[in-house]
Amino acid sequence: MSGPGAPSPGERLETLLGALLAGPHRRAAEEIVRQLTDLYGDGLTRIVGTLREHAPASVGAIAADDVVASLLALHDLHPLDAQTRVRRALDRLRPQVGAVGYRAIDDGVVRLTLGASRGCSSAARATVEAAVRDAAPELTGVEIETAPALYRIGMGPPGAAPEGRAS
User: Fold this and answer.
1) Is the pLDDT confidence value at 109 over 50?
2) Which of 73, 75, 76 is nearest to 89 (CA)?
3) Which domain range does residue 115 map to?
């Protein structure tokens, strides 16, 4: 089922897995997911290896698709490293969430700063986290620090009139 309002395949899969993992057959469900992930990972590894050997530019072309990019990243096959993918995701977000800065990736956790003007917005934080997780699903966490607000108090000696104004 597809169309506006219909769950995406990923959302549907999450729902089904959630139901299986909550039931009495949790261990069997986990093993099935593990085996399927390994199978698809092995297949993708072979596909990417063949492309790198015979058509290297094709790897970058297929990685431009968001769904394929997520699968490649999940199996450590993406042609771009996590830092590059995270930085690109942040660049795309800046018009929407404002100042967001990349600090580092340490032990699988990406560390970011979010500008104070929108730093209090839980929606902006959630948007940034989702974009980073989509860009680099192999990362284990996202830490966002709010940048301190900077205020301009004024210029000139005390009592001086602002430039262009009479006191």
Assistant:
1) yes
2) 73
3) 80-149
